[in-house]
Amino acid sequence: MKKKICIFGGSKTGKNKNIEDSAKMIGKIIAENNFDLVFGAGETGIMGAAASSAIKNGAKTTGIIPDFLIKHDLIDTKHSNDFNSELIITNDMHERKRKMYNESNAFLILPGGIGTLDECFEVLTWCQLKQIKNKKIGIINFEGYWNPLLNLINHLINEEFMGEYNLNFFQVIENSDELKKFLKMI
């Protein structure tokens, strides 16, 4: 059975178009390294760019979305089978995240906004609480996108609100070569 990697990323592309290009490259690398993709089922933004590239390069996708987001037209359910090899509709965000965590062998945090931050910190919290075990987390920091987040994490450690051992739960990935090495460790 193929391993699955879950991506968290923005439903928008943001102002830096290089980030969207990076998301497409990430999707391609995921597929080329024989992974399937788990994601939030959205066809737009960073997650959509990564997923469409993964599909184009041979990966299957599992899109997981709560019912209320379908009503906001984030996906076209008439054509979702073209974009999602499997589409799972959940009752709420909590069920969505739990399914994403259970379906995946590892996680990648791509650029995004507050929803991506929520998913990032929740998966890190679940690692700290030992609810997620032996699953790698990579923070994609191409072009230094997540530098402010990494500074905040170091600030939390310096202020002793977080233990330094939490740094063991994730790996910062700065470029495509580091991403390929990360995928080989899964």
Number of E-state strands: 7
Which class in CATH terms? Alpha Beta
Kindly identify the CATH topology.
Rossmann fold
Main pleated sheet: 7 strands, parallel
Please state the second-level CATH architecture: 3-Layer(aba) Sandwich
Q: What is the radius of gyration? A: 16 Å
Task: Give the total of domains.
Answer: 1
Could you please describe the fold and organization of this structure?
Helix content is 45%, strand content 18%. It has 186 residues and is of the alpha/beta class. It has a single domain, classed as Rossmann fold. Strands 4-3-2-1-5-6-7 form a 7-stranded parallel beta sheet, with helices on both faces. α1 (17-32) packs parallel to α2 and α1 packs parallel to α8 (176-184). The radius of gyration is 16 Å and the shape is globular. The two termini are 14 Å apart. The relative contact order is 0.16. The mean pLDDT is 92.
What structural keywords apply?
globular, Rossmann fold
Topology, element by element:
Layout lengths: L2 E6 L8 H16 L2 E5 L5 H12 L4 E6 H4 L9 H4 L2 E5 L2 H11 L2 E4 L4 H15 L7 E5 L6 H12 L12 E3 L2 H9 L2
Parallel strand pairs: 1-2, 1-5, 2-3, 3-4, 5-6, 6-7
Helix pairs in contact: 1-2, 1-8
Compact description:
The protein contains eight helices and seven strands, in the order E-H-E-H-E-H-H-E-H-E-H-E-H-E-H. 45% of the residues lie in helices and 18% in strands.
